[in-house]
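Workshop exercise sheet. Pairs work together: one partner reads the sequence aloud, the other fills in the structure field after running the prediction. Swap roles for the next sheet.
Pair: D.N. / O.F.
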Amino acid sequence: MNTTKPTLVHVIAWTTLASGIVNLFWGFAASATAIATLIGIVCVPLTILPTALGVFELIYAAKLFSNPPQAVKPSTNIAVLEIACALTGNFFAMAVGILSLVFYNDVAVKDYFVRLNEPFRSTPPPLPASLPDPQLVAPTPVEETSAPPEEIPSKPKRAPRKVLKK
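Structure field:
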């Protein structure tokens, strides 16, 4: 199985790793800043996105760097969440997300992920010992019968409802 990584897969792995590290620091800094202010305490849930995304990016980058390569699919979800990090002011992650989505659409990258995710086949499936010769097998005649079409039974009618009087 030829799983030579294209250059763009290496670029995706390195940029995802860098974005993961930046997102971890960005999330911690944003959380600390938000907690320091009275109004910022309400905004703390928005600062969790970069931190959680940073963890997922590090895990995904590790899978892309693994040798032998692990069966992993292109993570467009991570790329979209990286773009969403622009809401927290992290434009580096946004740029990485856009580049990742562009690189995932490259033909070489798509072929790599298809080859990586196809099931491992060590031997081809066995062929049957012998196939019957189609000229020696007599065709079976098909009998045509003219049967009336079956009627679809109609829905049974319900008995009228009884009205309860008070």
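Discussion prompt: The longest helix spans residues 7-36. What would you look at next?
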